[in-house]
Write a structure and sequence with these properties.
This protein is of the alpha+beta class. The chain has three domains: 2-138, GAF domain (Beta-Lactamase, 2-Layer Sandwich), CATH 3.30.450.40; 155-290; 303-373, PucR C-terminal helix-turn-helix domain (Arc Repressor Mutant, subunit A), CATH 1.10.10.2840. It contains twelve helices and twelve strands. The strands form three sheets. It has a five-stranded antiparallel beta sheet with strand order 2-1-5-4-3. Strands 7-10-6-11-12 form a five-stranded mixed beta sheet. The chain has a two-stranded antiparallel sheet with strand order 8-9. A hairpin with a 2-residue loop joins strand 8 (210-212) and strand 9. Helix 9 crosses helix 12 (359-373) and helix 10 packs across helix 11 (338-352). The model is unreliable at 187-191 (pLDDT under 50).
């Protein structure tokens, strides 16, 4: 259907002689029309950011929504607002199907179009066609999301078969899952709405938080996708959250395991900067083991080192162990003299009672320090 949206938005751009942009009701970019012009306003900053980042920023959304676009049934003129980054005015064509707004067509307002221009009637008719497509896609997506939720919540073969049937040929693997967490909740403590599925996402659903491995897990968004599209899907969905990518499996029956892996990867991404904001299960290294451990009090030997007053010593010990106990590399990474490093390490040994010359003691200390990163 994405090709249909592009053709229809190009039709609007050609009809009105101005660049048009189509966004979903969550302000995620769906399509934009090319337009040849020497006018710098065509590269309006808001339109440029929407195209590059695939979504309008919150301040822009808030300004647009003040003009009643979510309930409008006719074109709406929106003035510029430099404080929100809107340097050029807009005409918004609400994209509706029945009583529901499914998206918006945005036109740069160059003071040529008037709201009674008959061409806008034709453009609104095209918006209605887009609304029908978006409504059909939303219904299909909601059904797939329900089936995906049932599978991840119950992990039964019947749920896997139902999802496979609904997906059709798309169920033929490999498949994987993306976990975005924490997913925001509303003031009523319910999870926020499911966003528009980005390209590459086969289904989306919200998974509530709960107890997992002895810890309270926050709500998460699950996205079913192909392995090759997983990172792009994660980047489009995550906002300011972290995301994890599970391992690939040949079919829906493998998705519950992939979901656990994706959640673990997202948790590790929030704990370890080197993994980035989007982490893949296959790249977690020791965190594959650490995220599976039940959360409890830190090991008694290491607990004194984890006290707030010893953060610098803990960082020194972790860096030393990350560098395989090589003093020169550790001192360089910390930006300290080697003698300072030796002094700090001796303090670590006194605090913990561990011998950093012992492989077993090093392993215990390293695991405890990494596990501490996973604590909320």
């Amino acid at each position: 259907m994405r090709a249909d949206y592009q053709e229809l938005i190009d039709e609007v751009s050609a009809l009105l002689g101005t660049p048009a942009t189509l966004e979903g009701r969550d302000f995620a970019l769906i399509a934009f029309g090319a337009h040849e012009s020497e006018d710098d306003r065509v590269m309006d900053p808001v339109r440029t950011r929407s195209i590059l980042r695939r979504r309008s920023p919150p301040a822009v959304r808030a300004w647009f929504e003040r003009f009643g676009i979510a309930t409008a049934r006719a074109p709406v003129r929106i003035p510029p607002e430099p404080a929100a980054g809107v340097l050029t005015g807009r005409i918004c064509l609400p994209v509706r199907h029945g009583a529901v707004v499914y998206g918006y067509i945005w036109l740069l307002d160059d003071d040529v179009l008037t709201l009674d221009d008959p061409r806008l009637d034709d453009a609104m008719a095209t918006a209605g066609r887009i609304g029908t497509l978006l409504a059909e896609e939303a219904r299909a997506g909601a059904r797939l999301g329900e089936l995906l939720h049932a599978l991840l919540a119950e992990a039964g073969q019947g749920a896997a078969d139902a999802l496979a049937e609904a997906l059709g040929p798309a169920a033929e693997g490999p498949l994987t899952l993306v976990a975005v967490t924490p997913w925001p909740v509303t003031q009523g403590r319910e999870p926020a709405d499911v966003p528009t599925a980005p390209p590459g996402a086969l289904a989306l659903c919200l998974m509530p938080g709960g107890q997992a491995h002895g810890r309270v897990a926050p709500a998460a968004l699950a996205a079913l996708t192909r392995p090759g599209a997983a990172r792009a899907v994660a980047e489009r969905l995550r906002g300011g959250a972290t995301a994890g990518i599970g391992g690939a499996g040949p079919g829906p029956e493998d998705l519950p395991g992939a979901w656990r892996q994706a959640l673990a990867a997202a948790r590790a991404a929030g704990a370890e900067d080197r993994l980035g904001a989007v982490a893949a299960w296959t790249a977690l290294g020791p965190y594959r083991l650490l995220t599976a451990l039940p959360e409890g009090a830190p090991d008694p030997a290491v607990a004194p080192l984890l006290a707030p007053g010893h953060r610098e010593l803990a960082r020194t010990a972790e860096t030393f162990l990350d560098h395989a106990g090589q003093a020169a590399r550790t001192a360089a990474a910390l930006g300290i003299h080697r003698q300072t490093l030796y002094y700090r390490l001796s303090r670590v040994e006194r605090l913990t009672g561990l011998d950093l010359g012992s492989g077993a003691d090093r392993l215990l200390l390293h695991m405890a320090l990494k596990a501490d990163r996973l604590r909320p």
